[in-house]
Amino acid sequence: MKTSGLLVGSHNITQSKHCEQSLVSQSHSVIMYNNVCFLKVSRMLPGGMSVIGVFLVTPPELSKEAQNTLRRLIFAVDKHISKGRLWSLTEEDVTEKVTLHICSKTRKVVCRTYDVRDPKSSAKPADWKYQSGVCTSWPLLTCSVGLNLVFPVLEMHVLPQDMEKCMKEGLQTWAKQIEDGLCLINGDAMPGEVELLGGQKKNAKAVQQTFRAQILIPMAEPQSERRLTASVKVCSGSLTLKGMVQCRAYLHSNKPRAKHATEVIKRDVINTVSSRVEMFLEDLLMEGEDKGSVGVQQVLPRRVFAPVPGMSLCVCDYMFPDECVSDVSDRLKEMLDWETPEDSIDTSQEAVPEAPTIDLKNTVVQKNLKAKSTLDARPKTPSEDPTEAHKSHKTYYAGVAMAAAIALLATGTSLIYLSD
Amino acid sequence: MVVGNIILRLRGSLEFKCQLDSTDVPHVQKVISRTFEALGSQVKAESLVLSLSSSPVFLWPNKGGHATAGEISPNRPCKDLQQLIQTDDQESSRKKSAKKDKNNPTAGIINLTLMTEVTEPGVLSAPTLLRGSKKHHLLQTTLPMDCVVSVLSSESISVVCGTLVGALCSQLGDMEKVALRHMKGTALLIPQPFHFLLPAPVGLVTVVYPAGVPDSQLETQRKELHSLFELPDDRPYLRRANALHFPDEPYKDGYLRNPHVHLNHPALENGKPYLVQGVYSYHHYMQDRVDDNGWGCAYRSLQTICSWFQQQGYVERAVPSHKEIQQALVEVGDKQGSFLGSRQWIGSIEVAAVLDQLLGVTSKIMFVSQGSELASKGRELANHFLSEGTPIMIGGGVLAHTILGVAWSETTGQIRYLILDPHYTGAEDLQVITDKGWCGWKGPEFWDQNAYYNLCLPQRPKTI
């Protein structure tokens, strides 16, 4: 019996004693080693949440090989997720990632961490702790960011081949502005060390607190060189990115400080823009260049939110203009293996632009088609899992950098023991 | 300056970006104007934020002056903003003298910076990407916005915000005019604002000049402004060097400016002080790593005078070094080649010659056969300071000094001289210089009563 997956959660800077009940569910076996999945899952995570590790369940005879696999996996996962990232890690960022090996027979859990910044790093032992009582409400930060960016396409560049390059360069500058910008929380410019949840009782089952973030940047960067005239560049075209993105970030509830809050929301702002641009470019690459798209406003995928079952958290997904809610639901099932009723998916956060490229007729047709097919009634949890969930109320002890974790599912991990 | 007024200074950069599809002049002008118009809208947008320097306060001027700090509501008088500014009191009292700079009207200025809120929710929908494929020239720069407004300290914050936004818009308009006037092809000269404190009733004005165009080529503009502000047409008020120097911007060259303003002037019966006008730097022995102790006093006095002409905008050249002064004297034939590199003294005649050679400035020479006669020169000196207002170099006996002013009573004949002494060898310590009298008022006994003296009285060139 093989199970594998990614560990998703939030890194905490200090040692934490709180842990999350771990849910493990079965994967359906996809054989291909698919890097894209790590990235897809990573894109579904709002700010404050990230892929913090991988887990593997194997029979006892494969335990040793599993460790090697885990090690390879964790570095690969980190590499693919951080490729194309437009913000930089700071000294305070935790770069330890977790590998979990669970023996299918004895249920023994071996937890190790690796510093993914150092390719030669060796495994450090860590303890994995389950705790009863689900971690309830993580404070939430929200904001919506307006974009009005024009990127020049210099003469030497040719579209569409160089589109990615031009966009990346332009977005890099914008991302730096956001990173360096000032963040107000609930209208206040707090010093970084201020605790956001000051005065709350530790174990109080509080209602989820929502904070409004505002980001201020200088209107322009003053010129670094002493120029007398405006710079002149010959361009063959331009790329205009306009619109509003809805941003969300969660804070680990163990005494979050203002500086953590500003960091997670800014990173979400940057990620959501770069993710959807990447997705758009990937799609363009796959579908091929549409000559008719020049001079027409093309709609980028818009962000929708879906609740995590059993928790007051949301993950997100991106909907292309020709997609509908059921596509999102399918993807959530595929990536994260949980059922999301279509009406619980919030598509209202980002308004649909009046773009000519949306083919309504097509969407209606699609919807009709979906309505006719029955829902994929796969057995959710085979024999192992219900017992697993109950058994997991054991007292293993947690170690470094584990604030809260949910084990989610990702398809496709390279496994040496495919024959089952 | 008007009492009961507060000065607010708003600075920041605005991005100027425009696409020129062709380079023919009418098209270029149209696009430039449209770009400035768009910037005007940006400045009036609700997403504009003003950051109050050295404080955690942010203001949204286009949302009625709404602010972050709870205690600041838009109806409060703008002077309340000053209380929120965290000043570094330790720093300023160490450098300057204890006396407050009463003569500087821009002390206590409120500084603000331009920012924008990217999270200001507009009526925008999810992002779209538009690909344009027209070939064009992209013109890009940042505009160095710098607005200064003077408002009543009791004026409400919301009204002051409106005034500041208005000042930004009008500065954009001025910048547009300058940009279009000086544009050549696709070369857009960056418009730069300068602030000037003009004599009453005009007060504080801001003028935009194009970068890279020297003052000598901007005479037409200055003539227009002189007539607009009814300024005399024989002395400069609006050259870049005349720009107002804000107290929170220290001079970077390390020289002291106008140490005399920190002194108490003598109170003479029926008498009053007549002082140097404008700004000069204090030059003295041992500066610039030149050890001229014992022979360079007249050179230093000459340097002080040159600094005056530079800072009043008459010349753009830097203050000459001892070498350059000697070179000039050889060039006019006043000295032989062997003079170069020597430690020979110079006198008022040589000072006048150098001023003429290097700066194009003419001087009047006054001669007194005995130091005691200087006591009777009150009226002449007073008149000089009234009409020319330039520092005077006086040489005689074995010493040279600079006279910065005279206090003289017509009825009693009492006279005092404001002296700047170039023989000082210490550091630029204002406290020491004023306390020990290196810049101070002296009586007629200061002069060697029996020696003869020559005075060089530099004359202002009649130019704007």
UniProtKB/TrEMBL annotation, chain A:
Q: Name one Pfam family in it.
A: ODR4-like
Q: Which domain of life is it from?
A: Eukaryota
Q: Note down the stretches annotated as region Disordered.
A: 371-390
What is the predominant subcellular site recorded for this chain?
Answer: membrane
Would you tell me the Gene Ontology cellular component terms? endomembrane system; membrane
Query: Which controlled-vocabulary keywords does the entry list?
Result: Membrane, Transmembrane, Transmembrane helix
Which GO terms fall under biological process for this protein? intracellular protein localization
Q: Where are the transmembrane segments?
A: 396-418
**Subcellular location(s) of the protein:** Membrane
Which regions are flagged for Basic and acidic residues bias?
373-390
UniProt function note: May play a role in the trafficking of a subset of G-protein coupled receptors.
Q: Which family does it belong to?
A: Belongs to the ODR-4 family.
Name of the protein described by the UniProt record: Protein odr-4 homolog
**Species assigned in the record:** Oncorhynchus mykiss
Q: What is the lineage of its organism?
A: Eukaryota, Metazoa, Chordata, Craniata, Vertebrata
From TrEMBL, chain B:
- Give the UniProt keywords, A-Z: Hydrolase, Protease, Thiol protease, Ubl conjugation pathway
Segments forming domain UFSP1/2/DUB catalytic = 273-456
Gene Ontology biological process terms, A to Z: proteolysis
GO CC term (a single one): endoplasmic reticulum
- Every copy of the UFSP2 second domain together lies at 33-251
Q: Can you tell me which family this protein belongs to?
A: Belongs to the peptidase C78 family.
The name under which this protein is listed is Ufm1-specific protease 2
Q: Which organism is it from?
A: Oncorhynchus mykiss (Rainbow trout)
